[in-house]
Design a protein that fits this description.
Number of strands of chain B: 11
GO biological process, one term (chain A): regulation of cell shape
Pfam family, one (chain A): KH_KhpA-B
Number of helices of chain B: 6
Strand order of the largest sheet of chain A: 1-2-3
GO molecular function, one term (chain A): RNA binding
Helix content of chain B: 25-40%
Number of strands of chain A: 3
CATH superfamily of the largest domain in chain B: K homology (KH) domain
InterPro entries (chain A): KH_dom-like_a/b, KH_sf_prok-type, KhpA
Order of helices and strands of chain A: HEEHHE
Mean pLDDT of chain A: 93
Radius of gyration of chain A: 12 Å
Strand content of chain B: 25-35%
Number of domains of chain B: 3
Largest sheet of chain B: 3 strands, antiparallel
Order of helices and strands of chain B: EHEEEEHEEHHEHEHEE
CATH class of chain A: Alpha Beta
Oligomer: heterodimer
Distance between the termini of chain B: 55 Å
CATH superfamily of chain A: K homology (KH) domain
Low-confidence stretches of chain B: none
Low-confidence stretches of chain A: none
Subcellular location (chain A): Cytoplasm
Strand order of the largest sheet of chain B: 1-5-2
Helix content of chain A: 40-55%
Radius of gyration of chain B: 25 Å
Number of helices of chain A: 3
Structural class of chain B: alpha+beta
CATH class of the largest domain in chain B: Alpha Beta
Largest interface: A-B, 20 and 18 residues
Shape of chain A: globular
Distance between the termini of chain A: 17 Å
CATH architecture of chain A: 2-Layer Sandwich
């Protein structure tokens, strides 16, 4: 799941090497923390959060397969 | 600037010079080595390496690479075919997991289509941009037919009851299908209300 967020983020930003993803596993849910270079924040959030929303939609679909709730946080 | 010829001490160095001039990663070009370079006769004179580096169709390549990476990361068993027109590049996704990638009312497919366009539009400066469309198992066509049928059925109901009907929230493209389906209708008209993502079509008597 973290791998998916990393793949998408790396393709969007100008500094792919600065992309960091951290997974926190709970009982029923996983929190994925996404960190990018400060100047790339807009690239993963988008106008009115549209890009962040699209990332969450895709992750939600992937999570369906593993029957877990996934929360993506951009920090 | 679709191809460059560069020289360097080694083939690798010459390729890297061209990549820097193009400003693209290695997988966006094809390389033809014109001269391997290296040491000449008896190692006395060293020859320069010469390469011809040709820029691929970067919009299509970046979209293709991104899609492949996402499908792999989601561990899905999905392949795709590409259909090109003058203004669009369409990827038809196939495989047993396509349902998962379509999602409820196509929301996952729309999200991926949006992202793939964001990624590919990084290369807008290189060639005329062509919009990327994702379809899966003919989903878009079937959805268009369903929405057209729904629009006609609801128009009939509006005429019978003489009351307007508000549809559920839809994407701009889906709203367009409803508007188009009823644009020549003699007795009803359509318009949209509300803000994205809750914008809805209203069907009303003229």
């Amino acid at each position: 799941m973290g791998e998916l967020v990393k793949t998408i983020a790396k393709a969007l930003v100008d500094n792919p090497d600065a992309v960091e993803v951290n997974e926190i596993h709970g009982h029923q849910s996983i929190i994925i923390e996404l960190k990018v270079a400060p100047e790339d924040m807009g690239k993963v959030i988008g106008k009115q959060g549209r890009i962040a929303q699209a990332i969450r939609t895709l992750v939600k679909a992937a999570a369906l397969k593993e029957k877990k709730r996934v929360i993506v946080e951009i920090i | 600037m679709k191809e460059l010829i560069r020289t360097g001490k080694t083939v690798e160095e010459a390729i890297n010079l061209a990549l820097k001039d193009f400003g693209v990663p290695r997988d966006m070009v094809e390389v033809e080595v014109l001269d391997e370079g290296g040491k000449g006769f008896l190692g006395l004179i060293s020859k320069q390496a010469i390469v011809k580096v040709v820029l691929k169709d970067v919009i299509k390549e970046s979209a293709k690479n991104f899609l492949k990476q996402v499908i792999d990361a989601m561990k899905l068993d999905i392949t795709f075919e590409i259909e090109e027109t003058e203004d669009t590049i369409k990827f038809n996704l196939q495989g047993k997991n396509v349902g998962l990638l379509i999602g409820r009312r196509g929301e996952t497919l729309d999200a991926l289509q949006y992202l793939v366009n964001v990624v590919a539009s990084k290369y807008k400066g290189y060639e005329r941009y062509r919009r990327i469309i994702l379809d899966a198992g003919n989903y878009r066509k079937r959805r268009e037919e369903t929405l057209t049928r729904l629009a006609r059925k609801l128009a009939k109901k509006v005429m019978e009851t003489k009351e307007s009907i508000e549809l559920e929230p839809m994407t701009p493209n889906e709203r367009r299908i409803i508007h188009l389906a009823l644009q020549d209708h003699p007795y009803v008209e359509t318009y949209s209300e509300g803000e994205e993502p809750n914008r809805r079509v209203i069907i009303a008597l003229k």
